[in-house]
Write a structure and sequence with these properties.
By secondary structure, this protein is mostly beta strands. Helix content is 0%, strand content 60%. It is built from no helices and 7 strands. Strands 1, 2, 3, 4, 5, 6 and 7 form a 7-stranded antiparallel sheet that branches. The two termini are 23 Å apart.
């Protein structure tokens, strides 16, 4: 599986992030919605190319309504 595209929203005050991505695989495209917590402090505004790490926790993260996932220490980078 490969992430094709996506968009996210970051709450700088609470350090929470909602990320919606499109995932391509051999059987087609699925949509992934991840809800996570930023590691450490995140300062606004977030400049182009800046990165930070997020823990996407399995109780809130779902893949196409079928799978429960967990991604710890994932790096997120602003590209546009």
């Amino acid at each position: 599986m490969t992430i094709d595209s996506g968009r996210g929203i970051v709450n700088f005050h609470s350090g929470r992030m909602l990320l919606k991505v499109n995932v391509k695989g051999t059987t087609g495209t699925m949509h992934m919605v991840l809800y996570g917590k930023v590691n450490g402090h995140l300062s606004a505004p977030l400049s182009m190319g800046a990165g930070f790490t997020v823990n996407f926790l399995k109780p809130q993260s779902k893949l196409a309504g079928k799978y429960i996932l967990e991604f710890l220490g994932t790096t997120v980078t602003r590209t546009s």
